[in-house]
Amino acid sequence: MILETDDVQLVRAAQVGDLAAFEVLVRRYQGRVYRVAVRLLGDADEAEDAAQEAFVQAWQALPMFRGASSLPTWLYRIVTNRCLNHLQARRSEEPLSDRHEAQTPGPQRAAETEDALAALKVAILRLTPEQRAPLVLRELEGRAYGEIAEILEITVPAVKSRLHRARLELLVAMRQWA
Amino acid sequence: MTTGDDAGRLRCGTRVAALVDQVAEGVPPDDPTHQARCPHCRAALRELEQLWDRVREAAREDVQPPRRLIDDVVRRVRQELRALGQLVPLETVVPRLVRHALLGGPRGMTRIADSVVARIVANTVRATRGVHALSVEGPGTSGGEVPGRLPPRGVEIEVSGHSLTVQVRLVVAYGRSIPAVTAEVRRRVMLRIEALTGLEATKVDIAVDDVFGHPQAPAPRRLPL
Fold first, then answer.
1. Interchain pair A121, B58: CB under 8 A
2. What average pLDDT does this structure show over A67-77?
3. Which of A172, B74, B90, B168 is the most exposed place for a label (fewest CB within 10 A)?
4. Is B84 on the interface with A (CB under 8 A)?
């Protein structure tokens, strides 16, 4: 049996410039980094950019990585921050018309034309970023409260209360087109 | 689901919010006896479960990153390394790095020579109660950075990235508890390195080479009169 080299060893090698070690880490975590970006941004191209930037940023910051969080948690934090910043920029670029209001069909239309899953995604994208991030990390990524708190750099009670409101919002939206 | 009032309660008084969390978390109900009998609760739970199934389905969805993602990342990092003049074969990187700690970020790299760390360790060890001296035997840290200034003896540093391991050889004052002294040395060395350099000492190995000093005369035993 071949034992996989663990994160700690790979991180140590990457920290001193071992690109091959870093590549193994990218391969290992690209799935979740990209997935969380898609789920937060709702756009494949933007998610690809965010994931790419997140990994480049991770490489740059790697010498500072102390292992206070696990590597996947740290990567989640980097990509989530990038996505949240991106959403904020998107919002301030188009202050008058909400982009998703304008470009994506409302949940009701989506429910008529596509399946329930597509409609759910639209409903998630209509949550505020503050609610969307904990919802995606908890319900879609299955992360623990403590880890989400680390990723979003907020307290566990704050995670719980945002998540709670996000769930209610989502249910209200789903009921409208149920 | 039929809500009894605007405060989000069912007609039976149960908070809808509690049911939502129950369904989303998959935890047992607060009041199982009530829920098992209450038609309002059961209807609401049925509806919530049905709605929440879509969220579960979304969580199971297989989302794959585009194949080019990894190549794009590697290409970008390689460009960065080239720009920094760092992309050299690993064999030449390693010996150079052995004697330095690297702290880096997007705005530049900091190199800390291990003789710097050795000096900090030596000063810290000497200032610790119960330590008589550092051992003069044995190799000191290789390669002092300042010509004419010898690196401290009795301390060796091994650096890897931002973390390092420390080896100390010392002489303990006679009569002191060796485990207590070495524990204190270890604690202070780790704190001091972190405080002064930002590096993390992951291991401090200590060799006690000797003890020094006169055995203190035992305190006269007081008779229990």
1. yes
2. 92
3. A172
4. no
